[in-house]
Amino acid sequence: MIIDFNNIEEQALANFKGGEKELNARMFFDGLNRVMIARLQPGATIGLHTHDTSSEIIFVTKGEGHVLYDGEMLPVKAGTVHYCPKGHEHSLINDSQSDLEFHAVVPQQ
Q: N or C: which end of the chain has fewer CB within 10 A?
């Protein structure tokens, strides 16, 4: 299968998972697994949430920011990967002055 994000419309999701501002994302969802290319503008966040039934892998492609992972604030930047296993909680925070762009995969387990 090929997922062509050029043919998937970008969505602006306000306060995603209870976060601040908007998550701009192109998402593929097959009913079980979610794959996305997304962007957080400066000051935007994905709200703190727990992965009860799945894990998540976030590969940062541009910019920098932080993840709050199980209560610990960890830096992320282009070229780094954040992995949130099933049963753990996290939030993605763009506390920089430029966009934070990333690819994310949420496989159903």
A: N
* The residue to which tokens 């992965």 are assigned: 51
SS3 28: strand
Using alpha carbons, list the distances in angstroms from residue 30 to 3, 6, 34: 11, 17, 7
* Cα–Cα distance measured from residue 63 to residue 50, given in angstroms and rounded to the nearest whole number: 24
Tokens matching residue 32: 């079980």
CB 53 within 8 A of CB 86: yes
Q: Provide the whole-model pTM.
A: 0.94
Distance of CA 109 to the CA centre of its chain: 18
Stated length of the chain: 109
